[in-house]
Amino acid sequence: MQTERRIDVTVIGGGVIGITTAIYLELRGYDTAIYAEKVPFVDESSPEFATPYAAASIKPASVTFSGQERALSISQEIFGLFADAGSMGVRQQPHFVLYEEDRPDPGYADTVSGFRRISDIERYPHRPDATSVFGWQFDAFFAELPAYIARCYALYDSLGGAVHKRALTRDACRKLPGEVLVNCAGLGSKDLFDDPRPWMIYVGHQVIADGLPLIRTDCGELFSYNYMPNSDTISDGFTGEVYAYPRMDTVVLGGSRIPVSPSEEWKGHVPSASRRVGGVEVPSRIVELNNELLKTYAGVSIKEGNLTGRYGFRPVRDPDGHGVRIERTSLDDRPVVHNCGHGGAGVTLSWGSAAKASKLVGEAIEPDPAPLTVSREFAVAERLATRIRSNR
């Protein structure tokens, strides 16, 4: 008769931060369980649950995070393992960061792979009216959602992890098993645990374009981009950054970043030129500007696709101060490690954040690593466990 598994660490939250942290802890040698109200792409999406809205590129993001460069480096290394393995829904592709005004090299130039300044305007997405385009490109890892999240959950299951779906309250957290709790509850964190720092929500809009051919460079590669037009040369109301992330099943177009207090009820107002897409009000530039860029560069009109508008909430902790919360507190004398508040950088920083949170767990309870046995489809987990256990 099989005995019930003893739980060392309970992870609260089932988004990308929660499942990544749980896998990392399992591979380090802890027995874990996840308690979450929802599992992404399994349960019905809601704007408050950020993971299903991730564009899922692994590239530098604008969040405040102590040790962000190190976390990005760890994430890139692990996503590189996944891309090489070919079994986790991760690939590497060119990513363009484009402006109509010159910009200096970013601080992450030495962190990403294949960084280079762009030169010939015709070789990159650009507006037909643009006379010049500046910026850079690099080789970015890209997690194909929802396939990547599904593979993460399948890997976690193969490692013996258990997922319990239930809504949690602060009192319910007290009754959870485990010597340590790890809080990866995202926006729900502020209701479950005390936090002296403020939270902010940034509403992000997307348009999903189905039924289009795969969008490729002239060399036949899938690609993605962020594009910022010159506000002096574009119609008023259409200023602001847009992006396009082609997936195998669709094209994800964005974006917006509308600040809303968590105490407010957001009523859908878009403070710029807008249009309705599938009954959802979205910034017009997401459709119009991206259509210009992709039609000029790749010969694909997104207006020929089946368009769906949507919006999601990026929960950002203390954006003007301490930022992402990775620290240890306690609940009734039980250690609680917090790993939350990543905003739109959850996928990008997921593995680096998991490494940092795991170190804090290790200060409270030592892991007990055992030989790893996984099926051939998850052979990459053996290489990942070697990396994690060597503390590289």
Structure description:
- By secondary structure, the protein is of the alpha/beta class.
- It has 2 domains: 1-45 and 144-192 and 320-392, Rossmann fold; 90-143 and 199-317, D-Amino Acid Oxidase, subunit A, domain 2 (D-Amino Acid Oxidase, Chain A, domain 2, 2-Layer Sandwich).
- Helices cover 24% and strands 27% of the residues.
- The chain has 8 helices and 18 strands.
- The longest helix is centred in the C-terminal third of the chain and has 19 residues, at 346-364.
- The model has no long low-confidence stretch (mean pLDDT 92).
How do the helices and strands line up, and which of them pair or pack?
Elements: E1 9-12, H1 16-28, E2 32-36, E3 57-58, H2 68-85, E4 90-99, E5 113-117, E6 134-143, H3 147-158, E7 162-165, H4 170-174, E8 180-183, H5 189-192, E9 199-210, E10 224-228, E11 242-246, E12 251-254, E13 258-260, E14 274-277, E15 280-283, H6 284-298, E16 306-317, E17 325-331, E18 334-340, H7 346-364, H8 380-389
Parallel strand pairs: 1-2, 1-8, 2-7, 4-10, 8-18
Antiparallel strand pairs: 3-6, 4-6, 5-6, 9-12, 9-13, 9-16, 10-11, 11-12, 14-15, 17-18
